[in-house]
Amino acid sequence: MSDLKISNLYKRYGNVEVLKDVNLDINSGEFVVFVGPSGCGKSTLLRTISGLESITSGTLEIGGRVVNDVAPSKRGIAMVFQSYALYPHMTVFDNMAYSLKLTRTPKDEIKRKVQQAADMLQLGPYLERLPKALSGGQRQRVAIGRAIVRNPQVFLFDEPLSNLDAALRVATRMEIAKLKESLPETTMVYVTHDQVEAMTLADRIVVLKDGVVMQVGTPMELYDQPQSLFVAGFIGSPKMNFLTGKNAATYNATTVGVRPEHMEIVPNGNGDWTGKVIYSEDLGSDSYIYVDIGEEEAVIVRQDGKTPYHSGDIISFRPKGSLYHRFDEAGAPLSANGVATPVKTAPATSVETANPIEEGMPDEGVVGSAGAVAMPAKPARQRTASKTEAVTPEAGTIKTAAAKKAPARKAPVKPKL
Ligand SMILES: Nc1ncnc2c1ncn2[C@@H]1O[C@H](COP(=O)(O)OP(=O)(O)OP(=O)(O)O)[C@@H](O)[C@H]1O
Ligand SMILES: [Mg+2]
After folding, report:
1. What is the tens place of the pLDDT at every residue in 309-332?
2. The domain containing residue 291 runs over which residues?
3. Ligand 1, residues 10, 12, 13: which to mutate, most atoms within 8 A of Cβ?
4. Is the CA virtual torsion 60, 65, 68, 73 positive or negative?
5. pLDDT higher than threshold 50 for residue 358
6. Are residues 395 and 297 in the same domain?
7. 29, 242, 398, 401: least buried by Cβ within 10 Å?
8. pTM here?
9. Are strands 314-319 and 286-292 parallel, antiparallel or unpaired?
10. Are both 344 and 389 inside the same structural domain?
11. Where, if anywhere, are coiled coils annotated (predicted)?
């Protein structure tokens, strides 16, 4: 049994509270990923599990045993860091064998264990090389191998792939996915900034913000049913669009969230929102269109394949079916499961006329089909036509002219991509 139970855990450095009342149950053999903005406490939480950091209060149990005061080496854990921390003067074999030598493991057993780990990680041909003669991905695999030979109950990874280039990241991510399959009994906790790593590797994701656990769930639970505006904006790349004020009025919500991939472009005048394209990106397989509809940040609309729309075009769009999320002013979802239910209200002034047939329809009657989405019969007024656009791509968002003019407002959460 190597389940992990964290109860009422606090961590303070002097007056600074870095982790606040963290409660987590991680099952034996589970692969759990911690995500959250830089400085939110991911590494600190991982280090408290490893014992490299003490906890201020609370309880930490591994396999049913309270380990608050147990030394790191006695916790049955192994940790892999972003920096591989290999011994430069030792061969790959010796790096991997080092901890076993320290515990006076018999030579033939060391050989067998190192060979087994090397096979698992495809390091066989490199066993006699020094780390300096390896690529970054190979070095990180040695660091993982060094941890595997210790046969840990709990494997902790702190951004192990973040030093690797894009191609190596993909390859090493696959190695870690295979490792997870070949060690089904081993509990794994993994910190990352990378959306794809989190979504593809995790059985469950823990989203942290300012030392607080915001939501725990499977990747799809977090994607489909974010329980806060923060999680909605953090999970998914490019991030969910947030439409506010007049743009959210027909949804009877303070904020309507729609993922770029859940927007559909419709003939002008038939969408819920209409605006001017300020930028478009063709990636071949798909494209992203950045549209100014009067929000601080451009709304991103994803299209399959190449896009015919370019800067200056006016487009109209709306969510596909009921694929949108409504939030109140506190950022809490307005429906129980986070999948929004359209509620019709009188249109805001900028949406000139609402469809009289749809007005007043009960919630149940309008869920689940594209036609059911709250939709003005006439085009929404083109709010951006006369503006000068400010295209400033940063972290996946583009500021609109409105943002430039508007007084500083608390920006929506921007995931670190
Ligand atoms: N030894 C320390 N003394 C004081 N504050 C610390 C110490 N170690 C970490 N912190 C603070 O604790 C907070 C959490 O740090 P931590 O390294 O856990 O963040 P993180 O989520 O891993 O961030 P990143 O994504 O940038 O790695 C930060 O605000 C950091 O400044
Ligand atoms: Mg960190």
Report:
1. 999 999 999 999 999 999 999 999
2. 239-405
3. 13
4. negative
5. no
6. yes
7. 29
8. 0.80
9. unpaired
10. yes
11. none
